[in-house]
Amino acid sequence: MTIHGERRRSVGFLEREDESWACFLVTFPADGGRWHGYFSFRPSHSERTEDEVRTTDIFVEASEGEIHHKARGLGRPLLRGLLDSAVHTTVRQNGSREHLRGQFRSLLTQNSVDIAGDWTGAEEAVPHDGEIERLRSLYESYRIDQVSHFICLVDPEDFESAVDVILEGESIDFRTKDRVQFARMVVDHIESLLPLPDFETWARDFLANAEAYRLYAHTLHREGRLP
User: Fold this and answer.
1) 145 backbone dihedrals φ, ψ, rounded to 5°
2) How far apart are CA 2 and CA 14, in angstroms?
3) What's the rounded Cα separation, in Å, for the pair 159 and 101?
4) What is residue 123's DSSP assignment?
5) Contacting residues for 32 by C-beta, under 8 A, at least 6 apart
């Protein structure tokens, strides 16, 4: 819920269970001239405020500046503890586990980078038309990214229902060794439904627009948001 007059300041990123979370300090004026503040955390796979988790109001001060001063004194271990607490509280209140969508996004992003490497930096050379194997690796990475992008556009609850249908009732536990096998089944099914180009068509377009592809992958992988 957005509070009238609230202000958000980025605090950086935190790592939790191999996933990156954006951290924000949120402040707002309350009755009586006091200022309140709390931390809000959003997983890197999402741009939706609905996917954020937050602490309770942990600052109540006479001015916004005092909140900023106290917040700067908090170390990363304490912020990670607040993130863990906010996640656990949200899951308990909702009576459900965390959405599968974000876990799939993290797994697919890592898989995409494993296949093609991190080629999105400006210092990295773009392959030419003679590097067929390199182009094939980037093509496989591109296909995975398209599935990841599609998953992020689906409502989390609808995605969980779709996974249940695809796996015929089998559940995915991302803490077990079977997670890759089950996730691959879901990804293969979704990929078969997407109108993706064949390798030759993609390669011609990639070679003609390599920088656009680089920017797309950079936004998806390094910035953790949809292009």
Assistant:
1) -65, -35
2) 23
3) 7
4) T
5) none
Per residue in 180-199, pLDDT tens? 677 778 888 999 999 999 99
CA separation, residue 26 to residues 49, 170, 172, 200 (Å): 13, 40, 35, 49
Domain boundaries, the chain: 7-94, 100-221
What distance in Å separates the CA atoms of residue 34 and residue 124, rounded to the nearest whole number?
51
Tens-digit pLDDT profile for residues 14-37: 888 767 888 999 999 988 889 999
Q: How many helical (H) and strand (E) elements, i.e. helices and strands, does the chain have?
A: 8, 5
Three-class DSSP labels, 5-73: CCEEEEEEEEEECCEEEEEEEEEEECHHHCEEEEEEEEECCCCCHHHCEECCCCEEECCHHHHHHHHHC
Residues in the chain: 227
